[in-house]
């Protein structure tokens, strides 16, 4: 009965002596590594272990010989075909017999998947670091020309300008330049804090952020005849990073204007709700939308663009998703082609 269990088990079962040799192995063990019973018993166990794991395996074996039980020890073996096989071991020593009874589970697929995830996270970290450096460099380098532009407005004699339209345009330009300078200063402080792992949580009022964004985008809002409806009565504020909130509004509003249906003025509806005890910002537009079946998993990806008729680098949505996720929030989207899109931003509780 015991032999039948030993031979029919799908897990790798083996018995080893204190000298470091296999005494018995079951068929599952032989099938996995590709060696015959005779081959496995002809060499020391460590000869089948991957070079980088030999020392740690030997240390574990010495502990077992001191009557220490082994649970979930992981190491790598090399099959007869030269393939790396990850195994998770549990073993019990029987000192009176000078034998170790062990069971191993093949975890190669799990470890490969884990390593792939680590690699992707490493790549993502590298991309994020590059973006931080790019944002810092860009923001820093833009300060000088913006300051020069503001200086020109400061010395401009408005009294000699008689045309009201020209005066209004210049005033718009001056306000926009000052807003850009303020945003650049905020971004530089934000980037510096982010590099130190710090974030400035504060109570951010949605109507203030919307007012500032409308001021920043005043020229294109006016020229595109954008309609913006909003209702923050259900939730007037959220504890969040102020600069990140400005970035969310700026990117979503800019995209709504940029990707409106040709011939139709942009229309946006912005409101807040409380869902499952969490504050949610809902941003709806009536533009070109997304094909969720085709591109749903790419919308927040880096350098993803879905419309070649408009300028863009495919960075905005990627950026705000990373900003939101980094503070413990979440963003999602529902959309259909030519029926607009609804973005939901859930703020951390």
TrEMBL record:
<feature type="domain" description="PAS">
    <location>
        <begin position="1"/>
        <end position="68"/>
    </location>
</feature>
<protein>
    <recommendedName>
        <fullName>histidine kinase</fullName>
        <ecNumber>2.7.13.3</ecNumber>
    </recommendedName>
</protein>
<dbReference type="Pfam" id="PF02518">
    <property type="entry name" value="HATPase_c"/>
</dbReference>
<keyword id="KW-0418">Kinase</keyword>
<dbReference type="InterPro" id="IPR003594">
    <property type="entry name" value="HATPase_dom"/>
</dbReference>
<keyword id="KW-0597">Phosphoprotein</keyword>
<keyword id="KW-0808">Transferase</keyword>
<dbReference type="InterPro" id="IPR005467">
    <property type="entry name" value="His_kinase_dom"/>
</dbReference>
<dbReference type="InterPro" id="IPR004358">
    <property type="entry name" value="Sig_transdc_His_kin-like_C"/>
</dbReference>
<dbReference type="InterPro" id="IPR035965">
    <property type="entry name" value="PAS-like_dom_sf"/>
</dbReference>
<dbReference type="InterPro" id="IPR036890">
    <property type="entry name" value="HATPase_C_sf"/>
</dbReference>
<dbReference type="GO" id="GO:0000155">
    <property type="term" value="F:phosphorelay sensor kinase activity"/>
</dbReference>
<feature type="domain" description="Histidine kinase">
    <location>
        <begin position="137"/>
        <end position="349"/>
    </location>
</feature>
<dbReference type="InterPro" id="IPR052162">
    <property type="entry name" value="Sensor_kinase/Photoreceptor"/>
</dbReference>
<dbReference type="Pfam" id="PF13426">
    <property type="entry name" value="PAS_9"/>
</dbReference>
<dbReference type="InterPro" id="IPR036097">
    <property type="entry name" value="HisK_dim/P_sf"/>
</dbReference>
<dbReference type="InterPro" id="IPR000014">
    <property type="entry name" value="PAS"/>
</dbReference>
């Amino acid at each position: 009965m015991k032999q039948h269990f030993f031979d029919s088990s799908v897990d790798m079962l083996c018995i080893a002596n204190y000298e470091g040799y296999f005494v018995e192995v079951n068929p599952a063990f032989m099938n996995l590594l590709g060696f015959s019973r005779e081959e496995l018993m002809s060499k020391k166990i460590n000869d089948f272990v991957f070079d980088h794991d030999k020392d740690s395996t030997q240390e574990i074996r010495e502990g077992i010989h001191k009557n220490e039980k082994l649970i979930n020890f992981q190491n790598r073996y090399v099959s007869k075909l030269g393939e790396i096989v990850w195994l998770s071991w549990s073993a019990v020593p029987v000192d009176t017999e000078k034998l170790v009874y062990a069971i191993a589970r093949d975890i190669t697929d799990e470890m490969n998947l884990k390593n792939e995830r680590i690699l992707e996270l490493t790549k993502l970290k590298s991309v994020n670091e590059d973006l931080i450096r790019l944002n810092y460099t860009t923001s820093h380098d833009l300060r000088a020309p913006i300051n020069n532009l503001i200086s020109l407005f400061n010395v401009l004699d408005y009294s000699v300008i008689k045309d009201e339209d020209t005066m209004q345009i210049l005033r718009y330009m001056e306000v926009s330049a000052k807003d850009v300078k303020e945003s650049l200063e905020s971004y530089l402080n934000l980037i510096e804090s982010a590099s130190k792992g710090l974030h400035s949580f504060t109570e951010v009022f949605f109507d203030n952020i919307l007012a500032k964004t409308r001021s920043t985008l005043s020229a294109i809002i006016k020229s595109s005849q954008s309609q913006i409806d909003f209702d923050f009565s259900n939730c007037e504020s959220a504890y969040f990073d102020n600069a990140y909130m400005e970035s969310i509004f700026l990117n979503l509003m800019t995209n709504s204007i940029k990707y409106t249906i040709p011939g139709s003025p942009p229309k946006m509806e912005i409101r807040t709700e409380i869902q499952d005890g969490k504050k949610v910002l809902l941003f709806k537009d009536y533009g070109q939308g997304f094909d969720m079946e085709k591109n749903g998993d790419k919308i927040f990806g880096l350098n993803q663009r879905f419309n070649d008729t408009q300028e863009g680098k495919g960075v905005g949505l990627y950026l705000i998703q990373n900003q939101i996720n980094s503070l413990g929030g979440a963003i999602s989207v529902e959309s259909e082609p030519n029926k607009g899109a609804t973005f939901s931003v859930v703020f951390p509780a």
